[in-house]
């Protein structure tokens, strides 16, 4: 099951919860205030590159990608 991040629209707290994909926002309540007024937020952690990463070196060891360097 995936881990989703949520924000409570009542108390503005953010929290994570593991839920089935089909039930991502259904039946989720805020652990701080118990409100059901929540929204799913985009997780920044899955979109970051490490500080040593570079697009020009992606796939550097792969001969099929050598034509793109």
From TrEMBL:
Residues 1-43 form the Putative regulatory protein FmdB zinc ribbon domain. Residues 48-69 are annotated as: Disordered. Residues 48-61 have a biased composition (Low complexity). It comes from the Bacteria. SMART domains: CxxC_CXXC_SSSS. This is Putative regulatory protein, FmdB family.
């Amino acid at each position: 099951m995936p881990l989703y991040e949520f924000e409570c629209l009542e108390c503005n707290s953010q929290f994570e919860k593991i839920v089935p994909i089909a039930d991502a926002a259904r039946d989720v309540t805020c652990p701080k205030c118990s409100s059901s007024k929540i929204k799913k937020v985009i997780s920044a952690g899955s979109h970051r590159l490490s500080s040593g990463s570079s697009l020009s070196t992606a796939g550097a060891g792969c001969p099929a990608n050598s034509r793109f360097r």
